[in-house]
Design brief:
single chain; 8-stranded antiparallel β-sheet; 20% helix; two-stranded antiparallel ribbon; 12 strands
Length: 212
């Protein structure tokens, strides 16, 4: 029994995992108001069903200004093995682990300052989508056009699987220690300095381009 089965089976949940913005106000519609398409950026490539069993450790970066009770209800996470991959990348390149996550997970500063890191333990089984990150396009009004971030899925050391867990926000419990009552338990949190999480960030193609 997966406590978020209902949310996972909603047709929109896979679209969210693929980075689609399904809000009606942002949809592309025809003259009759019928939805033709949704804008899409980021997300996963070919998200696949993934089971999260009791005891599984997950990590998440969130906005430093977010209350824990809100931050823990976000859908995007990485498993322990992927977080360890982030730390190895950070150590190898002399950058903050949050900067490693920006690069390998394609998270531009416009989306989050990544000022909060949390570790949780799965208490009750959950369903998630698992997949490799997709390209991100960030609109800019500086006259230079949108900024594009490309994943490096062709390189084993940078091929990082992400998780999207539907239903956390819709059914979040009010207490900050738990969401989907009994499903996730917050074990530890770290406040990160935004000066560190953004240190060295610059929109220049080829960052970390060495073939490792």
């Amino acid at each position: 029994m997966f406590v978020n089965s209902e949310e996972f089976n909603e047709p929109t949940s896979r679209q969210w995992a693929m980075g689609a913005d399904t809000r009606p106000k942002n949809a592309l519609v025809d003259g009759r108001g019928r939805v033709l398409a949704y804008s899409q950026t980021g997300g996963m490539i070919s998200p696949a069903r993934h089971e999260l069993h009791r005891g599984t450790i997950l990590y998440r970066f969130a906005s430093g200004s977010a209350e824990l009770s809100k931050a823990v209800t976000g859908g995007w996470w990485v498993a322990k093995a992927e977080f360890e991959q982030l730390t190895r990348f950070a150590q190898a390149h002399g950058v903050h682990v949050a900067m490693a996550a920006r690069h390998l997970c394609c998270v531009p500063p416009e989306w989050s300052d990544m000022g909060l890191l949390m570790r949780v333990r799965v208490q009750d089984p959950l369903l998630a989508y698992r997949g490799l990150g997709n390209r991100v396009v960030v609109p800019k009004d500086d006259g230079y056009g949108p900024v594009r971030m490309e994943p490096h899925n062709n390189l084993a050391s940078r091929r990082l699987y992400q998780l999207f867990i539907p239903g956390l926000q819709e059914r979040a419990d009010r207490t900050p220690e738990r969401v989907l009552p009994g499903a996730l338990l917050v074990e530890r949190t770290w406040k990160l300095d935004s000066a560190d999480t953004n240190r060295g960030w610059i929109y220049v193609p080829g960052l970390f381009d060495e073939q490792d």
